[in-house]
Amino acid sequence: MTATDSSTGSGPFTVARSYTLQLDAPALVLDPLPPATGAQDYLQPLGASGGTAPYRFALASGSLPPGLVLAESGQVSGTPTAAGTFAFTVQVTDANGFTGTRGYSFTVAAASQVIRAFVATPAAPVYARGGSFSVAASGGASGNAVVFASTTPAVCSVAGSTVTMLDAGLCTLTADQGRQCAVPYRRPQCACLEVAIAAATPTPWDRGPDQGLWRACLRAARSAQLQHRRLQLLQFRPGRGHGQRPHRHRGG
Question: What is the pTM of this model?
Fold first, then answer.
């Protein structure tokens, strides 16, 4: 660089000097990202500052959670299909070509779910040997099967959705919905249901389901009694062996 003055006479005088000008790139700063919740729509614009707009965004390393995508405009959108913590790096480029990066530790929280409509059919069963009733419940959005169990094995047992009555009393049942690895749902709280199994009312023998058998037995018993009485009478008839009555002669 040179400089010349405005002097007269032997002037003007000129001087020169060399300079080295260092231009530092702007520090581009990316905004943080709020966490997401599994199985719920996510839409978050990613912003930047420190440079000249417009900005362009791209994934530099790592992977976003399954179900989410990063647009060049910086918008992160989608529906997470897995829960957990995911590490990735985003690069931003401003209008002058300057770049900046930021690493993220992005969390997807497991979505909550609740077991509802836990009922027994019938609601008040009556105990019968080998008798049973059914149970049903609505699980959460994960679609995992609802599993039923009994905490009173002396009173009732469960196979699938069928409850077998072992005795009269309070049958306590549970409903649970398991959580598979990495699915975006939290395991729901176990639901409980208490079913009072009433004792059966004794039924008179001649009105129960076996009344035909009882009546047949009664007829057979009566027939045996009549046959026994007939044999007794035959033993006392004349000419019937040692059971013969003595013949009396009336005087004339």
Answer: 0.60
